[in-house]
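Cross-check.
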Amino acid sequence: MIKTIHLLVFLAFTATLVAQDDDVISIKSLLNEMIDRDAIARFPQTNFRLKQESSYNRASKTPQDTVGWFINKDYNNKETDHNFVRTEEKNGQKEWVLMNHVGPGAVVRTWMPFLSPDKPNTDIQIKIYLDGNTEPVLEGNMLGLLDGTGEIPFPLAHQSLRSAVSFFPIPYAKSCKITTSEMPFFYQFTYRAYDDYTPIKTFTKEDFNSAIPFTKKVGELLLAPENAVKGNEISLKTKLRSTKEKSIELPEGNAAIREISLKLTEYKNPEVMRSVILKIEFDGEQTVWTPIGDFFGSGIGLNPFQGWYRTVSEDGTMTCRWVMPYQKIGKISVVNLGKKSINIDLKATIGAWKWDDQSMYFNAAWKGQYPVATRPFSDWNYITLKGRGVYVGDALTVMNPVKKWWGEGDEKIWVDNEYFPSIFGTGTEDYYGYSWGGKSTDFYEHPFHAQTKSNVYNKLNRKQTKGKNTSGYSTETRTRALDVMPFSSSLKLDMEIWSWTDCEMGYGVGVYWYGDKQTTSNRVPDEKEALNIPPLPEGFPNN
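Predicted model, tokenized:
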């Protein structure tokens, strides 16, 4: 069992490690930021824009071109495909350029899928060149380098469901070029683009090797995410009748919620995860209104998993560790929209916080819709935000009424009113850190993403099935650390509705962000839709 590291002691230790570099961004400073829960609640002092290079279909130019915008060939499998930057030759060998960013930055997330559903290996080599150097600083098997079996240790890199995913930071002062020795298939490289002249210590193998003990400590903490920060606990244990609401007031003054846990004795009833609402108010403004299943990443029904920011336990206890600062007052409420009384056990740990100009309020909202037509193809808006803030994650629950795969849709994210999205993805399952969604129907978890529920059922033989039957409920969740998305004036996140079948699906998404008090969203409480739970396909058993 991994030994839990006391967070305050560890952060003090890491602060000493990175202090010698002052404000210089380095491997160690970024690893420290990854596990610093307080950092995410403040707007970044060092400005950056999160961007992504991916194999999205280059025919997608504008939403007005409804054919090109929803075209689905976001991969390369023959010479006429050009969903990459360019090709070039080095020493007579051809290389495919997947990323070519000029300027200071840091690669903070990589995703590469298996070349086929059942082929976890490949002969393709990947090379990462930094600051214009002609020799790569990292090279190796395209999957093995980034799946936790090579130099980058688990869980900083890991083999997800039929994918290699890495969160290990690769900073660079001048430029980053990533190439492969053969034509790439699907790919995503997410990176921070910093302002010019931002002081950055470029990744070297020497620094990587010297950081290995520190990297292992970070990995241990990510896998044992208990919040060790001290604070005062407040609690509420009561029966909550139908259509009623109960609240607890937070201690007055400058402070922050450090942890919230909630347990319902009726957790085995899947509908309570959607009909019970968590509300939070800070300094006179309601910033959280979300069904509890979507807030904690469980979806409809209790679906246990462990992540860095949220944990759902088999005994029904749901925990979140987002830091939620406030200046004067706050209140946590639980609302029962259901027809039956429930018993709730709510606890919150309140700790110290020093409010400053960079401090932001935690927000969580929810959007649900049933039915959602899959034809014509469309973009389904998760959230549109106006003002200053940082987007930090989401949890999507879908009900698919048919066997065929539902998740071909790409994420499209616009920041600060840009013309074309900074991030244009390659598929919904890719956004949530796995691939081959038609076959990857298993549970999986990682500190920053998970598939907490995939309820596949074949009504013909009345048993759970694998393969390409993806009917039923699926819940996917992603939270962000180094790949948070700061925005100064606006952020818009759309997800394509792209199924292989003309049908009517159910969608529900919980979204999480930090923002100033003046920051607004287009999400409003929707009690009617929260009670509109999409029915399972005919022949499905109850949860």
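The chain has two domains: 7-36+75-223, 232-530. The chain has a mean pLDDT of 91. Passed to J.P. for a second look.
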